[in-house]
């Protein structure tokens, strides 16, 4: 990639608070955060588009965004899309299963059994999506620059840690 823009990709286990961490990191670094909600709205796909076509369109759109500006990409197998980009920092957030369940119970007002089912189901769907379109497991630590267990660490502190390390890696005033 020719651009000097910094790309941060954040993949996460469900219930780690990864989206919140990404937005806090974006505020600290002064860069925009792109996630499924923003991409789906920007792309305007209807229900008849296949998942493969949608993934390919998202990949193209994310690369175009990264050419224009520094950015944070949440999910979307960003670690793989930008695997060969020297200006990308790829992050995977994990947390203890029970901590993720507790987080979701509080955040979404779910019962413990509902939260447990949701964590298992969404983690399985994310892994299936990633393997289907990238051929690799999102759980392979070799795909990332940082794998961080965020259990019991406030989102802001994780974001500060990540911002310091992104700045250090690129020696830039991002």
CATH homologous superfamily title: P-loop containing nucleotide triphosphate hydrolases
Could you tell me the mean pLDDT? Answer: 90
Strand order of the largest sheet: 2-3-1-4-5
Question: What is the alpha-carbon Rg in Å?
Answer: 16 Å
**Judging by the overall fold, what is the CATH architecture?**
3-Layer(aba) Sandwich
- How many domain units? 1
Number of strand segments: 5
Based on secondary structure, the structural category is: alpha/beta
Q: Beta fraction of the residues?
A: 5-15%
Q: How many angstroms separate the termini? A: 18 Å
Question: How would you characterize this protein structure?
Answer:
The chain is 53% helix and 14% strand. By secondary structure, the protein is an alpha/beta fold. The protein has a single domain, classed as P-loop containing nucleotide triphosphate hydrolases (Rossmann fold, 3-Layer(aba) Sandwich), CATH 3.40.50.300. It has a 5-stranded parallel sheet with strand order 2-3-1-4-5, sandwiched between helices. α1 packs across α7. The radius of gyration is 16 Å and the shape is globular.
Question: Which structural traits does this protein have?
Answer:
174 residues; Rossmann fold; 5-stranded parallel sheet; alpha/beta
């Amino acid at each position: 990639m020719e651009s000097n823009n910094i790309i941060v990709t954040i993949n996460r286990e469900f219930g780690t608070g990864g989206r919140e961490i990404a937005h806090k990191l974006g505020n600290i670094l002064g860069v925009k955060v792109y996630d499924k909600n923003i991409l789906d709205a920007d792309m305007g796909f209807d229900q008849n588009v296949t998942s493969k076509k949608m993934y390919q369109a998202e990949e193209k759109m994310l690369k175009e965004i990264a050419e224009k500006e520094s950015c944070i990409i949440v999910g979307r197998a960003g670690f793989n899309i930008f695997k060969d980009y020297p200006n990308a920092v790829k992050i995977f957030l994990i947390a203890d299963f029970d901590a993720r369940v507790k987080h979701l119970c509080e955040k979404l007002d779910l019962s413990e059994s509902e939260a447990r089912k949701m964590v298992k189901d969404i983690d399985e769907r994310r892994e299936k999506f990633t393997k289907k379109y990238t051929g690799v497991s999102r759980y392979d630590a070799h795909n990332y620059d940082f794998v961080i267990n965020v259990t019991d660490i406030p989102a802001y502190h994780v974001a500060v840690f990540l911002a310091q390390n992104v700045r250090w890696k690129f020696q830039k005033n991002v």
